[in-house]
Write a structure and sequence with these properties.
five-stranded antiparallel beta sheet
Length: 171
């Protein structure tokens, strides 16, 4: 039986993880088996640069924290060695970065995640990872909005040029 001091420490860690999950916009659960130290270092660096918190937790702790946050469905995916990537600001970043590594490393697997108050499965995490970033989407929207405006500008300029050439021919 664990001492009161150890139990307090574990409860504090669980409360911290629960708060981290509650204040995040998205998270992804992965099985990190088969990843080398070098790959893990690169993965952690990429996640840190994207503002994603990535940490290995005991499955029981992840389960308790997810239960407390209303994501109890994730518990069915808690077998083996797991890590949790949590983002407080960007809902796509954890899925996108972790999918990159899952594609490179055969044994590194996306398992589940959560976003918008609901649990998502591996297929949904993969779909989320394939979503363009916010910047890419804004560029596409701006490009689609600018296309008709450029077309209008060209038509008006052609009309002006035609009228000017018509005046030059009369003179």
């Amino acid at each position: 039986m664990p001492s009161a001091k150890i139990l307090e420490k574990k409860q504090a860690e669980c409360a911290e993880l629960t708060e981290k999950i509650k204040s995040s916009v998205a998270g992804v659960l992965v099985s990190y088996t088969g990843i080398t130290v070098e790959q893990d270092t690169q993965l952690r660096k990429a996640l840190r640069e994207a503002g994603v918190d990535y940490k290995v937790y005991k499955n029981s702790m992840i389960g308790r924290a997810c239960d407390a946050c209303g994501y109890g469905e994730i518990k069915s995916h808690l077998d083996g060695m797991n890590a949790l990537a949590v983002s407080a600001t960007d809902p796509i970043a954890p899925a996108k970065i972790l999918k990159e590594y899952a594609d490179k490393i055969e044994t590194f697997q996306l398992k589940a995640g959560y976003i918008d108050g609901g649990v998502i499965d591996t297929a949904a995490v993969t779909e989320l990872a394939n979503t363009p970033s916010k910047e890419e989407m804004l560029c596409k929207i701006m490009g689609s909005m600018m296309g008709p405006l450029y077309g209008l500008a060209y038509v008006l300029q052609a009309k002006i040029d035609k009228e000017e050439s018509g005046e030059a021919a009369e003179a």
